[in-house]
Amino acid sequence: MRLGLIPARGGSKRIPRKNILPFHGKPMIVRSIEAALACGRIDTVIVSTDDEEIAALARSAGAQVPFMRAAELSGDHATTLAVIADALEKTEAQGARVEALCCLYATAPFTTAADLEAAHGLLEESGASYVFAAAEFPYPIQRALRLVGGRAAMFHPEHAATRSQDLEPAFHDAGQFYWCRPEAVRAGRPMLGPDAVPYLMDRARVQDIDTPEDWAFAEKLFALGAGGAPS
């Protein structure tokens, strides 16, 4: 079985209840559930939550909620890998054999079923332990600045005169989804380590949604089509 997992705790601080707030006419989590359900590489979609309201909404949208997440995995310091490992263990304890797992965040409205399918193909082709959504930094990180005594200083002053096109591109975790091999999860291998392969997404479809300003900007991007996001 290829398992789709959507983690959605109820205790968001900066945007309270953000997993179920309406985003362009649908609760945010429903967009992730729909993308996972539409993905031909995912057989079963479950939601891991500690919140009964989120669980009820997830079920009404077509996902399963076969267990409620424990409090110790629902706080601010719980890691994604720990939540994945918990869901994997509980799913396998019910007799299922999981051959691959896709963890899709509840706040990833720009991710499509096509993204998930292509990324799973990359997992199979590469033989890697993980495939994660990534994006290129829009500005050379070698030109990054810090403040020293209120004045600007370069992190890498040796590149002050280097042409932008001569600098190595840099990428970051897009915070959208992760395809995982169960054996890597059980072993606790790092999700962004040497055995992880990036699935590159257009920067226009990568937006952290942690503050009200982030949310407003994401809705504007979504309204513009944002590189193929579903309506």
UniProtKB/TrEMBL annotation:
It comes from the Bacteria. It is an enzyme of class 2 (transferase). Keywords: Nucleotidyltransferase, Transferase. Its EC number is 2.7.7.81. GO terms for molecular function: nucleotidyltransferase activity. This is Pseudaminic acid cytidylyltransferase. The gene is pseF.
